[in-house]
Amino acid sequence: MAKTTPPDELEKLRAEVARLEGVLKAERSANEEASLRAAYVTQDNSERPTGKKVKVPKLKGYKHMGFTDEGKPIRHPEWEEVEVPTFFYKVEMPPVGGVDIKINGNPLFHGQVYEFTTDELRVVKDIVHRLKAHEASLNGTNENAYRKPTEAQFSGKVNARVH
Length: 163
Fold this sequence. Notes:
Blueprint: H1 7-41, E1 48-67, E2 73-90, E3 100-103, E4 106-109, E5 113-117, H2 118-139
Antiparallel strand pairs: 1-2, 2-5, 3-4
């Protein structure tokens, strides 16, 4: 013979199931974002669209407000909100880059995946490219392949030739 559950206990169980479904939904969305980041890390080092859009202020133009005493025009900027896509990008810096790079005071650490707008992504990629070029200039690349190797030595001797 099956045992029946009292109605008040049944309502408590339903409320608990609803609460747990809400928690599960939140965890699934967090896991989806984490899996996107993890999938990105295993791929090549290029940006990957997130499918999200954010609103950012963009300069629409300048409004002419008058002239200064010197006759120069007074202009005030006009702004508008524009939706732009975001991208995941893994910051891969060479050792010469230090511990982090900073954008607007926010540190971006080597090996971490961050979400950027198009303009932020351009700036970060430019900084990383310049760091890689600087690393190549310090440690050398194969740019001296056709030059004769030299054995430069520095000494403390002073050349005392007088003309």
